Amino acid sequence: MPVFTRTRQLPGTKDEPTAPTNDEPAAADGEDAPQEPQGPPAPDDESSTGGAGGNNPAEGEAEAWRRHLRWTVTALAAVLVYVCLQMPNTLGNLRLREFVRLPAEAIIGAAVLLILPRRPRLIVAAFSGAALGALTVVNVLDLGYNEYLGRHFNIVLDWGLLDDAHSYLEDSLGGGTTLLLTIGVVVLVVLLIVLVALAMVLLSNLLARYKPRASKGALVAGTVWITCSAFGLEVAGVPIAADHTAGVLKVQAHRVKDTLRDEAAFAKEARADSFGATPPDQLLPDLRGKDVIFTFIESYGRSALTDPVIAPGVEKTLDTSTKALTDAGFHAKSGWLTSATFGGSSWLGHSTTMSGLWIDNQQRYRTVMSSDHLSLTKAFQKTGAWDTVGVMPGVQKGWPEQEFYGLDKVYNAFQLGYQGPKFSWSTMPDQYALEAFQRQVHGKKRDKPLMSEIILTSSHQPWAPLPKMVDWDDLGDGSLFGPIQKAATKPADIIADSTRSKQEYGRSVEYSVTSLTQWLERYGTDDTVLVFLGDHQPIARVSGTDASRDVPISIVAKDPKVLGKTTSWNWTDGLQPAPNAPVWKMSAFRDRFLTAYGSTPHPSKE
């Protein structure tokens, strides 16, 4: 079909069809030019009204304004797509120099769009733009997970944890604020995906409108990319030739494949239990008659003893508590465990410690919880020589894990009689939870010794507001904590301040340790054996981006025979492990504990 354009008409002449000049874009894809969506005009384009500064100055100014607006929108679209192509997935890489690279994906994408007919081009542009927007959302989630949990976001397993994040925000910031934040996040995610898709469509139209120039530009850009890649050219240590988006897709694909493979491999590992077939009378014979308590202190990690802002207060508390326990006739040994989790997901640390399996993701957790693998706490129940209970002030709904842990009775947040206020995520102060345990469980007469698992929550982030120690005789139903909670620091005051978060985190650990050790001084007997440890390090904003996953662990008892069983462990005397004390994987603790106290291995058959 011949293509005609209209030129500026001179007075006294008639309209005549003319061929397009070299300065005007030809119609793309064999279609009439008016059917092609309009992109920004070429700088020398003139409007049919006579151009800017023609016979109608007002209309010329309006046309000039529209032309600038089109260029601005196009430039913003290009910047949006470029930023999404280069978006890093770790906070440390969120730097300007990461955005001065030449993305291979942009060059290849332009080449593909240039050769496609109009309808397929628009479909490909919209779909690839939406996919790029979704991948950017995943990168932002990856960035957040790296910052808070010290690991990457798993697109197969981690969507369920967003509900826990919502509950955490609700407890920390309130229901109204959390609702507004949730709506805002959903709107931003949808808006990002839609805007990137529209941006890609707009840019594809621009490429088609100026196809000859765009083709030359893509060829030049491709040549530059290959040259930079071949010679390893860099800017501030960052390679100029980039394929970041392709790399992210490759990593995510491998992660999905590895996740799916891991499920079958871990299920097989969970069935192979070295103590799975041990007869009841051969489990824990050297602890018979003892009241054994396993206690997890939330977010109690190595950073509490090494960070210069946090450590002085925590070390002083541990030294004071060690002395007080020694005066009461107790002795302690301490070491380190490397947790299976970091910054959160406490249940992974709990289950790793008790199962003897490395449970570092939700899939493994679900697998082991539905298995008959022998947990350490269930070993006590299996003997028939102990009553077994759990004190779980953080549990506020049904908890089917009770069966895996072998607990005859579980006291959740609503069964401990607490009538005071919540302290952010923590439903009650640790001191109250321990006093309720004493009143409802430990202090009662019974025919068998007691094995207890207690989860303390006052040191859970955001570490504000925090409770204070009160006289144990005044605890009552916890109502006296009302004024303490109202006068305490608010989460919003520290949540974005790293230094203040560290200070309040340290105070929370001091409070939890003091509550536990004072309870032991007050209610412990010659037959009490206390094992307490952290479940994981605090988030990276507090512990540091290069922090280890180590957590302290201590065993406390009056009977010297109990601690004598751990002599080969070479743990440190007292509640504070030495920096060079032995470090075990958290999954090693179950078997070492069972072996130390006389259990005989009898592997179960797969």
UniProtKB/TrEMBL annotation:
Signal peptide: none annotated. Residues 1-10 have a biased composition (Polar residues). It comes from the Bacteria. InterPro entries: Alkaline_phosphatase_core_sf. The keyword Transmembrane helix applies. Residues 1-61 are annotated as: Disordered. Keywords: Membrane, Transferase, Transmembrane, Transmembrane helix. The chain crosses the membrane at residues 69-88, 100-116, 123-141, 179-207, 219-242. GO terms for molecular function: transferase activity. This is CDP-alcohol phosphatidyltransferase. It comes from Streptomyces dysideae.
